[in-house]
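Input record (one chain):
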Amino acid sequence: MRTQLTLQALSALSLAALYLPTVAQTTTPDAPAAPIAQATPAPDKLLPLEVTVNGAKMGTWVLIERAGVLYAPKEALEEWRLQLRPGVQGFSYRGSSYLPLAGVPGYNAKIDFSAQAVDLVFSPQSFAATRLAQGITDKPVLSPVLPSVFFNYDLNYTTSALRGAPDSRNLGALTELGVSTRLGVLTHSVVGRNLISSGFAAEPAQWTRLETTFTRDFPEHNHTLRIGDASTRTGLLGRNVYFGGLQYGSNFALTPGFVGQTLPAFTGLSAAPSTVELYVNDVLRQVSSVPTGPFTIDNLPSFSGAGEARVVVRDLLGRETVVSQSFFANPQLLAVGLNDWGVEVGKLRRDLGIRSQNYGPAFFTGTWRRGVHKSLTLEGRTEVSRDIKTFSLGAIAALPGAILGRAAVAGSRAEAIGNGSQWLLGADYTGSDISASLQAQGATEKLRQLGQELTAPPTKLQLAGNASYYHERAGNFGVGFVTQTRYDSPRASTLSASYSTRLPGKANLTVSLSRAVAGDSGTSVGVTLMVPLEKNILATASVDHRSNQTDFYASATQSPAQDGELGWRVLAGRQQDRNRAEGGLFYAGQYARLTGDLSASPDQTALRLGASGGVLWADGRLFASQRVSDSFALVEVAGYPGINVSLGSQLQGRTDAGGVAMMPRLLAYQSNAVRLDASQLPISAELDSIELTTVPAWRSGVKVVFPVRVGRGALLRIVLDDGEAAPAGATVQIDGDKQEFYVARRGEAFLTGLLPTNRITLKWNGQQCVFEAALPAANPDEIARVGPLLCKGVKR
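The corresponding structure, as predicted from the sequence alone:
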């Protein structure tokens, strides 16, 4: 039991007296000798002391000295994180357990009676280990979804003039209509071709449906449901196919900061409270404070590859200990016990983008991945359709030497042609300066997968590998190869090499070489130089030689630093044995992105114009904006137009005449800090905060309202019946307003939210009075001063 005492009540002298030997009673020679008494144990001594443990102050505790041994309450040892040797016994005192400090390894004590303090030192290994773990991220509370409808468009107009042929014109469009509610998001996209068409290749106008999908997220379970058009997920083996139907499975992106991989743990030991710095590949990644004892760091952000970690422990006295440890991590390795799964059922979709409705046979797929060990993740997948059935098993494992290995096998049965099989072996290494990858994949001739035509044989054997080396001064070197053998075509093999380096002035030089050594023959050599200039201008020069043809060009591009600025690009060179020149402008504004390009060659001149943007209907209002591809918000500052609205420090809009702004780029399921520019608000505007946090759902809207108290601010001077100033501390309140204001010195009170005429109540010591206050004409450069105003019926 922890006891807080006033140390002055027990002087250092009385404490020292507890340790003085007991003086024996003396007798005269004539007196009869006293009977010899049996020795009795010394009484327990209570010692209220200021305790320091390994240099850290732990407060005042009552310790007990018994037979020369110092005891401490059990709860003190728990708070100090000390661990006793097995079998250590204590005793009970007034309902509390006391345990001997000598039972803790490395124990040493130094008592300062004059300061009524004790300095305790224990072995660092005797402290319970501290774990700096990745805390479970509390999911932010989802903001209410604002029902809305959005429409996105991409328009592209092209006109070209060919020498010796009529001019041609063409207009294409890509559109998307979306409806967002609390139940989910429904989207419908279509593409339009030849909407305006003329010239020798004129074709009739055509609209084609792309995708129609309803999406509902379940962030509390990290699951997502899609109904409509989607694409299947794959495993180590398999292929993506488009389909129409239902898809349901895990989606860890719904939890911000979720780490689904196994991360390395770094350990160390601190002899006193210390600061721990963690360097990963010589880059400082984290600084933490730890108490005395062993500690483990496993709260790192997600990263991948092999490397060296250096843990620097620096205690209160400046003593430094450095521990180095190798590590390996990869996001493909799931955390132990974590499941990643998905199921799909529906019909295969064919000719996406060409035909609106072309669905094939029904099918079912299921994929399941599980982290069974920190170094092993297993996978299973099945595909079932009317004509083809497949099943595969795979594993991803951390191998010795910081290598990530992959292996998978699959079998298929096609009713029309029989059984087939497939296999895969792969290995990756990612270090601080060297990385390499090697993969081999093969299949029998009768293997068929979901969505694959029965008449199309698979690839018989495919080998691919690459390696790269990075040196801070010399640059980056890379080599690679790929060879492919098919059942219906000859083998094709290609070798490649590349080199890139930094040049003075932040320029970058890249040289690449590739050669086909089997199948089609040929060699390609390319050199590219990129030079960044001032004002976000990037200059590029490139030369490429292949098949007895040399192409070269020089270009310059200026990218806008922010929305609302104009960007441009120019290019000149020779391509495909023809001289060529291009120029373009692009502008990203609050309401759309506009582009214009002009290209010219000896045979053709072409002009391309483009526009991309969106329209949003929400809260009974219509807004124009850039494409609505992310979550969005309506920000309301009623009565205050022209106020800049930012997401953190990034400007995203400005309030309109009604005091409303539309923000088109919010992060779904994360806390978004919506901020107002306080410098643009008048001094009379009163807000509780210029920053509010909102958490929108995926591609959904939220409404963020900044409550502003309307009216003006003024300094009122109030007097009582006797003509003296109203007492400081009295409160005043405007009728119809909940806000209370205090009277300061000289009877003055600053009030906000005032109208031209106001009815005001003053309260003081259970008394109150009511008076009127009229404001003079508004002057934006000064605060109105009104008074004296008479408050009748209130006495001091």
